TrEMBL record:
Superkingdom of source: Bacteria
Pfam families referenced in this protein's UniProt entry, alphabetically: PTS_IIB (PF02302)
Protein source organism: Microbacterium deminutum
Alphabetic keyword roster: Kinase, Phosphoprotein, Phosphotransferase system, Sugar transport, Transferase, Transport
PTS EIIB type-3 domain sequence ranges: 1-101
Phosphocysteine, modified sites: C7
Classification lineage: Bacteria, Bacillati, Actinomycetota, Actinomycetes, Micrococcales
Name recorded for this polypeptide: PTS lactose transporter subunit IIB
Gene3D superfamilies: 3.40.50.2300
Length: 115
């Protein structure tokens, strides 16, 4: 599964993406996570199965969901305290809850096969 973490400038999303990658690896999941910005979102969406939206972008959530829906991409608004999730396990749990299963989405549920 390909996870895009979006924030305003890309700094905080880089930390979240790195923590999610490590948590997924520790749990034996073949997930990749990468950081993006609100400006790069139209291009980055094409490479993502799930988009994690930083809490400070809540104002743009409706637009992001519309764009993601066209691609079959799941969108998750991160809670305001997400940056305290130092090991990424809570963020990973949010992703798994959003996609409906322990292993993540299947191609029939939307998005591309896990990479």
């Amino acid at each position: 599964m390909r996870i895009l973490v979006v924030c305003g400038a890309g700094a905080s999303s880089t930390f979240v993406a790195q923590r999610v990658r490590h948590a997924a690896h520790d749990q034996g999941l073949d997930y990749s996570a990468f950081a993006g910005t609100e400006k790069s979102l139209p291009i980055d969406l094409d490479a993502a199965d799930v988009v994690l939206v930083g809490p400070h972008l809540a104002h743009a959530l409706e637009r992001i969901e519309r764009d993601a829906e066209l691609r079959g991409t799941t969108v998750v608004l991160l809670p305001s305290d997400i940056f305290t999730d130092m090991d990424g396990t809570r963020t990973l749990a949010l992703i798994r809850d959003a996609v409906g299963g322990p292993g993540g989405i299947t191609p029939a549920a939307g998005g591309a096969p896990p990479t």
